[in-house]
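Researcher: I'd like a candidate sequence for this fold, 114 residues long. If you have to choose between options at a position, lean toward the conservative one.
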């Protein structure tokens, strides 16, 4: 990537437990490969409904951001789908967070929030 004049790269991956039926037999983590080339991973984990009783007695749809040095941040979805509102009873939660990372300021937009 650097040979192309790029300073940043984004990759998607799935991390599965050792006993997951879809985990390849010859799985090797790519972290050492990228670290050797000077990249450090910021991980945006999947968003999912979670209960946070400090917010509401209903679940919120929350995404998690992890930095290479272990810092963590969360963003709750603000605009629910009809199914989330009417069937699951998911609560809306704001405001939008801005995260200061080692590469740039970033935010998380979940589904309809975008």
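Model: Candidate sequence:
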């Amino acid at each position: 990537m650097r040979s192309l004049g790029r300073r940043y790269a984004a990759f998607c991956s799935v991390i599965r437990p050792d006993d997951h039926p879809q985990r390849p037999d010859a799985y090797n983590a790519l972290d050492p490969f990228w670290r050797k080339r000077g990249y450090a991973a910021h991980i945006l984990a999947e968003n999912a409904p979670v209960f946070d009783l400090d917010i509401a007695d209903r679940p919120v749809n929350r995404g998690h951001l992890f930095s290479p040095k272990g810092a963590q941040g969360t963003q709750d979805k603000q605009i629910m789908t009809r199914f989330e509102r009417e069937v699951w009873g998911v609560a809306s939660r704001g405001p939008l967070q801005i995260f200061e990372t080692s590469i740039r300021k970033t935010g998380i937009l979940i589904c309809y929030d975008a």
